[in-house]
Amino acid sequence: MYIIYTLIYIYIYIYFFFLNTERTRALIIFLNIVIHIIVHINLKVCPTFFFFFFFLLISSVLYNHIQLSSNLMSGCDYSLFKDGIEPMWEDERNKRGGRWLITLSKQQRRADLDRFWLETLLCLVGEAFDDHSDDVCGAVVNIRTKGDKIAIWTTDFENKDAIVHIGHVYKVRLGVPSKVIIGYQSHADTATKSGSTTKNKFVV
Fold first, then answer.
1. In terms of domains, do 57 and 131 share one?
2. Family assignment (predicted)?
3. Same structural domain for residues 171 and 89?
4. Are residues 123 and 188 in the same domain?
């Protein structure tokens, strides 16, 4: 088991060394301490916990070295989807689904966009939607001149219980005031809309 820990440590060290930042060097020092504690006092650490810690470590470093959403040019998108699911309506897991949509004003780009997108990613990675996390396909942030959008995509627009639960949790996690309404739209309705807006199937 210690060999596995050591190999992971070596991999992280090599990866972080080339990034060469104060934050990543601090993470290496911390991980070094953890490894030595495990080896010298023979703690029985659950492998699942260790690999979860490793995953969070890598994720945080990657996020900190990616351009913030608020700095992207208009017309650019970021997306995070489960393995095997493409960020497009036509995907088998998406075509009968829809999205909880957050629309931000131009003024909110600097104030809220990055915070909202980070919280959205944490909701996905941490499976924040309890038993209904399996219904979540992924999330998208769209940078647009008229106003930015963030959306969580789900797999079945007819699964009302899952959709409403996801919407309530998502709204709370973003810290959206209760008086502000957010809506859920099916991809089918969005694709066939005749005007500039799509009718909401659910709201919270």
1. no
2. Belongs to the eukaryotic initiation factor 4E family.
3. yes
4. yes
Q: Are strands 149-154 and 183-186 parallel, antiparallel or unpaired?
A: unpaired
In DSSP notation, 140-177 reads EEE--SS--EEEEEES-TT-HHHHHHHHHHHHHHHT--
Structure tokens at 13: 């060290």
- Tell me the CATH number at 167: 3.30.760.10
Domain boundary among 21, 44, 65: 65
CB 196: neighbour CB atoms within 10 A? 5
DSSP-assigned beta bridge partners for residue 78: 141
Terminal-to-terminal C-alpha distance of the chain: 48
pLDDT tens per residue, range 30-88? 666 665 555 555 555 555 555 555 555 555 556 666 788 899 999 999 999 999 999 99
Which residues form the domain of 139?
74-203
Together in a domain, 35 and 94 = no
pTM: 0.72
Return d(Cα 76, Cα 74) in angstroms, integer. 6
61: left (phi over 0), alpha (psi -120 to 50) or beta: alpha
* Structural domain count of the chain: 2
CA atoms within 13 A on the CB side of 134: 3
Closest CA to 94 of 132, 135, 61, 58: 135
